[in-house]
Amino acid sequence: MTTKGGGARSKRSKRNGASPQSVREPRGEPPLSLERIVAGAVELLDAEGLEGLSMRRLADRLGAGAMSLYWHVANKEQVFDLALDSVLEYRASPHVEPRDWRGDVVHMLEDWRASMLRHPWSASLLPRRALGPNILARLELLGKTLSSAGVAQADLNVAIWSLWNHVMGATVTRASFDLSKDDQAAAQQRLAGLSGRYPTIESSRLLLDDDWDGAFRKGLDFLLDGLCP
Amino acid sequence: MTTKGGGARSKRSKRNGASPQSVREPRGEPPLSLERIVAGAVELLDAEGLEGLSMRRLADRLGAGAMSLYWHVANKEQVFDLALDSVLEYRASPHVEPRDWRGDVVHMLEDWRASMLRHPWSASLLPRRALGPNILARLELLGKTLSSAGVAQADLNVAIWSLWNHVMGATVTRASFDLSKDDQAAAQQRLAGLSGRYPTIESSRLLLDDDWDGAFRKGLDFLLDGLCP
DNA sequence: AAATCGCATCGTACAGCGTACGAGTCAATC
DNA sequence: GATTGACTCGTACGCTGTACGATGCGATTT
Fold it and tell me: Cβ–Cβ of B210/A173 closer than 8 Å?
């Protein structure tokens, strides 16, 4: 084992509901916990971005000392992994009778993409080999749906993999692309600076005002057409 | 302007061929240059990974002081951006007569993916808004080929975007997935630890022995079928 | 020959980082 | 009362990116 695996050496606190507050936190700060750490990390990432998250700042925000975090968490990498996975939770809409499988798949994948775009830092955390339970649950659901829709076992991996690629690529590309309106002027200027070296891109206005959502949906449809004929 | 833009405040050295060596480097180290910095960065990244690149270590490798780098480069971020783009250079095979456009597209995109997989750190650098000349050149080539293949102007952006997504997703996913044979045993163990909570994934052996290349190609074909009917 | 100027290099210093280590505090148990 | 285990945290170490200013150099101007 290479430092990955179960969180630090803790076993989750056992003190349920008993003491109204301990003496440790004189100003009513609740005790540290994995949940609070992850939630705080997400807040901090949302507010300050990737660079804004440091163990010291996270601990400050939680009213704790920096080293206290390390009881609940092995290292900073694990905080990132947990934050990413926590943002990818998925609650399937509870449908009694099975809707059309294709609608389910599209819904889940669009929700996936939306969840990541809601937290722009998440795209930067993707290229690490961290498969948290929520990511695995989404893949499981995807596989199950496709399988019950009649995709052959032999083609299942290709299907899952291609669809996942599409979602990942769409979020990563958009993160690297989208100028989110705050510096659209800068983009204009940048393109102008290229002045004719990339005529096709310029004339297609690829970098400027794209219908990202529509393109995502369209590519998804083509993939599904091909994968599940 | 927000610290992005043209490299630092240098204008590239003017001394062409004249002096055989200056007095500054008594042991024959060639002078610093953007090219040498970028090449050194790629070497260091290949050898030590993302975390292994620091300005001090890079300067050491080049036989220079750390702060000397900052004459040629604005900051560390720019080093990353330049390293990524430098790895994505593409030389189209010189074909006199136009081959089939689809073969050209597939070749270019497979080369793109291969280039990134050859430098595993590159996937982690994707989710930043850095569109270097080589990336733009690839997009330009892609757009031009599709356009000359008859893709309507209105559909061009969707096509470029979907194909790009596919490549990005494939490299990012693989980077986060592939256990590159060094710890395949760890993967077995990891999956065993999940013990039945993700039956579809387990039975499909999705995480273990996949035909990544074939899946990439298959998804690409589906996309091209749909995009360019 | 002397002064000036731009390019380029680099030593020092600072604030911040992740985290190893060990001492500390508390509640529950024996 | 003593012990144990869960949990917190102060200090310290080595490392980071880079701001600042001093220095050297070749070429140009005076």
Answer: no
Evaluate whether A102 touches A149 at the Cβ level (below 8 Å).
yes
Residue B12 maps to a domain: no
Please indicate, yes or no, if residue B9 is contained in any of the structural domains: no
Contact at CB, B131 and A226, closer than 8 angstroms: no
Tell me the pLDDT tens digit for each residue of A59-99: 999 999 999 999 999 999 999 999 999 999 998 777 766 67
CA distance B33 to B12: 8
* One domain for residues A162 and A204: yes
Q: Which nucleotide is nearest to A29 (CA to C1')?
A: D8
**Dihedral, B112, B139, B217, B87 alpha carbons, nearest 10:** 10
Two tokens at B48?
A: 């030590």
**Do B101 and B53 form a contact (C-beta atoms < 8 A)?**
no
The answer, for B204 touching chain A at a CB cutoff of 8 Å, is yes
pLDDT of residue B2: 36
Q: Are A165 and A172 in contact (CB under 8 A)?
A: no
ipTM: 0.88
Do B73 and B111 belong together in one domain? no
User: What's the CA gap between B179 and B182, in Å, rounded?
Assistant: 7
CA distance linking residue B212 with residue B177, whole number of Å = 10
Of B136, B204, B222, the CB nearest to A201: B136
Is residue B118 domain-shared with residue B210, that is, in the same domain? yes
